Amino acid sequence: MSITKKELKFFNHIDRQEITNLKLKIDFPYKEIYEEVEPLLNNFVIHRQNDGGGKWKGLVIRGLTWDRVGDPQPQDKGLVHQWQFEDMLPITTNYFKNFPCWPLEKIRFMLLEPGGIIKPHRDIYSRPKLFGNINFCITQPEGCDFHIGNEIIPWKPGDVRSMNLWFEHSVVNNSNERRLVMIAHQTKPVTDERFIKIALESYSEI
């Protein structure tokens, strides 16, 4: 597979646009992944206590350690991310090892308990960046809303979306069920031609 200079230029153009999200044409085996991780849900660690009120939690499957769900720190520079649960989560691990966007960096499960609120915040401040944060929906309870910019994302289990976290975003879980997603991070420019092709095809259909 190869992409043209024109395709790459357009991909980079899309990356810098003020687009809140892009639903990607990628299959995601959310049911199988949920069955694998379900026994671990009560072991998730609290993420941003002051933001999520203790109801926003995570579990890292690729990172420095399984419980380092928070933001990167300056002292982390140069440290190598490792797979954390290859034996316990083989379907999940193999899916991401073969995901058409490498090199991915940190990959984690993120869970919002019933009644949980993730306050409005931004994760990127310099400029819009669409292709740096990919979200994978596993469960999406009715009554749980993901706000970004002036939109509410119509998430459904199995959806895969590139999220432009330059926009302010928040989540409110007014349901009696947990919301469970996965997030894959990429801070370096995306060069994987497989992903570029998928992104361009997905963008052409909006």
Helix and strand arrangement:
Blueprint: H1 5-15, E1 21-23, H2 30-37, E2 45-46, H3 49-52, E3 56-63, E4 82-83, H4 90-97, E5 107-112, E6 117-121, E7 133-139, E8 144-148, E9 151-152, E10 160-163, E11 169-173, E12 179-185, H5 193-204
Antiparallel strand pairs: 1-10, 2-3, 3-4, 3-5, 5-12, 6-11, 7-10, 7-12, 8-9, 8-11
Helix pairs in contact: 1-5
| CA-based gyration radius | 16 Å
Average pLDDT figure: 93
Fraction in helix: 10-25%
Largest sheet: 8 strands, antiparallel
How much of the residues is beta strand, in percent?
A: 25-35%
Q: How many strand units?
A: 12
Amino- and carboxy-terminal Cα gap: 24 Å
**How many H/I helices?**
5
- SSE arrangement, N to C: HEHEHEEHEEEEEEEEH
Uncertain parts: none
Broad shape:
globular
Word description of this protein:
By secondary structure, this protein is an alpha+beta fold. It is built from five helices and twelve strands. The protein has helices at residues 5-15, 30-37, 49-52, 90-97, 193-204; strands at 21-23, 45-46, 56-63, 82-83, 107-112, 117-121, 133-139, 144-148, 151-152, 160-163, 169-173, 179-185. The strands form two sheets. Strands 1, 2, 3, 4, 5, 7, 10 and 12 form an eight-stranded antiparallel β-sheet that branches. A four-stranded antiparallel β-sheet has the order 6-11-8-9, with no helix packed on it. A hairpin with a 2-residue loop joins strand 8 and strand 9. It starts with a helix and ends with a helix.
